[in-house]
From TrEMBL:
Record's subcellular location: Cytoplasm
Alphabetical GO biological process terms: intracellular phosphate ion homeostasis; negative regulation of phosphate metabolic process; phosphate ion transport
Protein name: Phosphate-specific transport system accessory protein PhoU
Location of the PhoU domain: 20-108, 124-208
PANTHER family linked: PHOSPHATE-SPECIFIC TRANSPORT SYSTEM ACCESSORY PROTEIN PHOU
Quaternary data: Homodimer.
Signal peptide: none
Length: 224
């Protein structure tokens, strides 16, 4: 491959990594903004999160175009091809993570401020855990760090346990406080979205592992 072609390919790969990093940063901001708007009952912030999701969608489309360009013009092989394909798949997953954050923001106007309940603070802790998984898995992609990808997958079990505990807490609260049934139902939806964000971070970790090693990560048993 000619030197100028190699340089152009490296520039394309650098651009691709940058777009994935940008998408990830926006997804993290969306999770944080959605949860802050929930905590405060801030309808304006919730609307900002919903509107900002379009930017994530736009970057995903840019990633798709760049991947097609790289494959058509550079014909990457082996390790390089795995990274390009992984980036395309990861962009789609990060877009879904942004959608989950947007869905949380959509619930904010439906939760009455006059009946704010304690379980909201518990969900905040779960959100921090999910957001950290998203942040760390995108760092692992940038570094092609297979070991970090494995560690992130292992953390998903802790997030699932967190979800189960929150589910029990919210159902108990709903039974003991019937007037909060509507609010609690929305909070259950929020917790489920956070659990799905963790699942998607795990999916990205598996892609990172494959891109870095060329082999599939061993299947994990839930709770192990």
């Amino acid at each position: 491959m000619a030197e100028h072609t190699v340089k152009a390919f490296d520039e394309d790969i650098g651009r691709l990594r940058g777009l994935i990093s940008q998408m990830g940063g926006l997804a993290e901001e969306a999770i944080d903004g959605a949860m802050r708007s929930l905590q405060r009952g801030d309808l304006d912030l919730a609307q900002e999160v919903r509107a900002a999701d379009k930017q994530i969608d736009a970057i995903e489309s840019e990633v798709e175009r760049l991947v097609v360009r790289i494959i058509a013009l550079r014909a990457p092989m082996a390790n390089d091809l795995r990274e390009v394909v992984a980036a395309l798949k990861i962009a789609a997953v990060v877009e879904r993570i942004g959608d989950y954050a947007k869905n949380i923001a959509k619930r904010v106007p439906l939760i009455e401020g006059e009946h704010r309940i304690e379980p909201i603070s518990i969900i905040q802790a779960m959100a921090r855990m999910a957001a950290e998984m998203v942040h760390d898995v995108l760092d692992a992609f940038a570094a092609r760090d297979a070991k970090a990808a494995i560690e992130i997958c292992e953390r998903d079990n802790a997030l699932d346990d967190f979800y189960d505990a929150i589910f029990r807490t919210l159902v108990t609260h709903m039974v003991e406080n019937p007037k909060t049934i509507s609010e609690v139902a929305h909070l259950l939806f929020v917790a489920k979205n956070l659990e799905r964000i963790g699942d998607h971070a795990t999916n990205v970790a598996e892609m990172v592992y494959f891109a870095a090693t060329g082999t599939q990560m061993a299947e994990r048993e839930k709770g192990e």
